[in-house]
């Protein structure tokens, strides 16, 4: 949970030396700003008193010099504080990304990518602005207001008093208007994140949408989204506009007061024209800090909304974090047992798995078959602890999965899914997941061992061949081969494989069978099989239907029983029985 204080402490405090350096620069730039009207007054009064040309000229040169130096310091402060803000928030981006990556599948199911981008990037950028400008604008402007008021007070206490009161009143009024408008701004940010989310979801499925001719329906849906977005935007902009109008009104009144005071000082108190001008000049200069503080408060408001959303994200914890004590898993290949296992997805009350029981000795391979939607993939997800059972037990090496740390489970299990993710990176990085410790020789050995040497030698640039992100260019068979090689490199104790259900050509099919056989040697395996060839290789069989076990036993026993589903399956072929 981040509060502004914690945020400043975690990300700004380590950079305090640079902050101190920036503070000095800021003071110089401030002094230059405050000094300018004073010099201008002298120049005015000198020239009105008919002084020598040279004296006036000296004043003008001094004025120019101070102005240039002031701007220079200001530029340095701007650069420095922006750099600081970005560095600090890059750390936050990093921390947030790491947190998000540790979250459970249920979170990814409930959050669309656009929303995530909004939070991890847009919201954090807003905080960067806050961190950078908080230092710059708030501090410098408050000091500037104080300095101006003191200098005005020196001219006449009444002038100082009136401007102090007026500036304070302006700030109170502006922040009052601001607090009324906050809810509209928050609502608008939420609506924006939602629209981005929907848009990015549709963009990522453009291919499917086009191929089913859903473009018009999609456009209509987007239009409805945009219409729903509009009132939020309108209200938020009206909110901004009311803050702005209030500020403009205050500015006009301030000028009127300044002119009145200047005239009074000059006519009734015998002040010089230079002094009268000085008062108007400070009044004008005072507008800027009030405006900037106003804008800063507006930013602060946005940043506060962003911070709330970031905190909501951080408050989500994963199964892994809830783990208090974790039992170690026995070494070597793992024994898997399910006992009255039940499961339903959180958003759905129907049981996807119901009283599933089976026992798979270590080192053996279980083939899981069943119609589409029978719960096969769900069973695999429970093993990989992407979800936890809602009833019964699932034991790995005799220990309930729920009492083993998620990290440990994932270290020992390789879960090869139906959808193989390919990164826009080299074949090497795609195999090792960017682990540099893995040597090329080892990779080639693994590819050879899995019977993929031919595939490898056909690659145009060997391990450096670039792959495209998002599966394009890779056939289902090749994808599975890549996934098997990845699994093999991790040397797991249990392999969970959700076989590609697509039809493969006989050559690729033979390659996959061979690689799979090699991968499963001396390892426990749970293979969701879509091909009879795979089933011929397994030791045990589990047939699921609507989440329930229809048949379980050794393949041999089921094969020798002519009445078993498996025997019928072999006679009729997989499709006939299962579909
Ligand atoms: N993430 C999810 N959230 C909610 N329901 C889900 C989710 N994933 C699957 N389901 C539902 O759970 C049931 C079982 O799905 P599952 O993916 O386990 O089936 P499957 O046997 O792997 O099917 P297939 O052979 O098509 O891969 C289905 O009714 C499905 O709609
Ligand atoms: Mg499935």
Describe this structure in words.
The chain is 66% helix and 10% strand. It has 21 helices and ten strands. The protein has helices spanning 4-12, 16-48, 53-101, 105-110, 113-155, 157-204, 206-211, 215-268, 273-315, 319-322, 376-383, 406-412, 427-432, 440-449, 453-457, 476-489, 506-520, 532-535, 555-560, 565-572, 574-578; strands at 336-343, 353-360, 365-370, 391-396, 399-400, 413-416, 494-498, 524-528, 540-545, 548-554. α3 (53-101) runs antiparallel to α5 and α5 (113-155) packs antiparallel against α9. 32% of the residues are buried. The structure holds adenosine-5'-triphosphate and magnesium ion (MG).
Features:
66% helix; binds magnesium ion; binds adenosine-5'-triphosphate; alpha/beta; Rossmann fold; ABC transporter transmembrane region fold
